[in-house]
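To close the section, here is one more complete example, presented without commentary so you can practise reading it yourself. The ligand is fe (ii) ion.
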Amino acid sequence: MSQSQGAQTAPAMPDQNAISSELRRNVTAANIIPLWESGTTAFVQGTEQAFHWPWRVMQPIMQETARITIPAILERRVMMMVNPTIPRNESECCSGLLSAGIQALMPGEVARPHRHSMHALRFVLEGDGGETIVEGKHCAMLPGDLVVTPGWTWHEHHNPQGRPTLWVDILDVAIHRALRNDRFQPGPPQGMKDIAPDRAFANGGLVPAGLEAASAGYSPIFRYAAEDANRAVDAAPAGPDGARLARYVNPVTGGPVLPTIDCCLMRLEQGAATASLHSSGSCVCVVVEGEGESSIGDTLVAWGPKDVFTIPHGQPVSHRCLAGPARIFMASDGVIHDRLQLGART
Ligand code: GTQ
Ligand code: FE2
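Output:
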């Protein structure tokens, strides 16, 4: 897919005196705005730029944040990464329609059960004893694990012992706010669904029959272990440019893990560089291991382990691995673009 780049600015605002003072009074009283004075004609496509939150910046911030012990903060010790290049970013997005933050749960801490309309995922950076319970299913949180909490599923985080657990949260807040449908409910959980255990889906190519309807909205697997993802990407055939890509899927439908967020893991060998591609969705990337640089539109990002960087939709991107192998986790809002049939437009 290719898209035109660069900001398209609306013509200069016409003279506010173009309409008579009487008409001005009348339209104001009637809650009417002339289109030529409306902010909706200031098109903003293409103005988002790639952005980078290096771990060397985030790590000391998270270490300092971990010392805060105010109870209200304990359960949401999250530092959000807000992309300053996104115009009118009321939803504090990181890339496209995706919000992202780094959360820390210290030993002995609990984030109490709740649910919300937003679809969310966590990609674990550090930890040994933490877990998230999703709709009653216990999901261990080990480095490199992906844990999804689909919209309106009950979830709670625990870190009974051991080291702090740190992870990247990625949520589709903006679309829920745009639809005026962002909802939150505190626990205790009620009306939890009975979802088949993850081991029912652990036999490659075979899944329990009859779950199609129940699994249409989201994946019945809530935890994708790092070791499984690594094995899958290592076994994936390399593309012509040497990159290997494994996609996290809903095992029943083959669809994305969340209705609005598609995830994959890329592996690049040392010295390899990907072909220049356009991304149909906007991406939040988390570097699992390795070092390299990515050319994204006009921006060059030099990345290392636990760095977070973004890829705005429609921008040409090429990743180069300088110390490898490199593994990069990517979460994209491309599902939303696809659902709106935007991919075919050039
Ligand atoms: O851990 O459940 O970053 O509910 C924002 C909202 C994390 C969570 C966020 C949440 C969570
Ligand atoms: Fe939550």
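Once you have examined the tokens, check your reading against these statements. The chain is about 15% helix and 30% strand. Residues 114, 116, 120, 155 surround fe (ii) ion (ligand 2) (CB under 6 Å).
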